[in-house]
């Protein structure tokens, strides 16, 4: 995997004093934990589009079918200034080879979900920051998240897993497009994708099976869209349990009766939410190495991200 992995981050989350009040919103999980594995590309759209520090607070307002960015007291419309910046910045970001982006929640420029939007003076959690909107439209498959939502372990795991998956996909593209390389990638990611969406995995399988009927560029474009779409669905306890049982099936001829019983007990405890996913996965990884299961050794599902990130450790 190409290292470092680049992700965009709202500058204030890295400790930069760029907010409207001259402060920051330093997020230690981002800098101290994710920073061990990711290289950050900081962006503050408000400062970079020419606004001062400090500056008047702004808000989003609905004007017919158009969303405007307006200062709260002096009522200055900053929409075009911000949109001009967005159009230029997203093109610049193409050169950064980003694998994800973490936005500042509630920001009228960078908020990703449920930003306050005023319609006829009435607020509603229905908006999206102008810069966040521009990024998601220009990079529709890019893994994106807000820093506040990263405190939810399920959302955190899904985002981090997608970032690493996107990096692996980009590395595949960097090595050249061929049906053989795509088949190998598809095989290595089988169980990971099944844990997110068995339905899309079947669709991906059909696509690869008919790969020779498509042009290489069309094949890879369609596969990429399905791959990232599948991973956007959360890996549930039920789907993970099915994958764990699938892996356990490879050891029917190797494990003793007592080992089989222990493995099934641990998978059952995970299914009942008594232990975290890392517990059965760790045991299965032990058996994979012990018995040299070559197919399973290549399965990304068993190690989708560095152990130091402590994913799959919550019940």
UniProtKB/TrEMBL annotation:
Domain DUF1722, first and last residues per copy: 190-306
InterPro entries, alphabetized: 2-thiour_desulf (IPR007553), DUF1722 (IPR013560), UCP037004 (IPR017087)
Signal peptide: none
TM regions (residue ranges): none
Protein name (database record): DUF1722 domain-containing protein
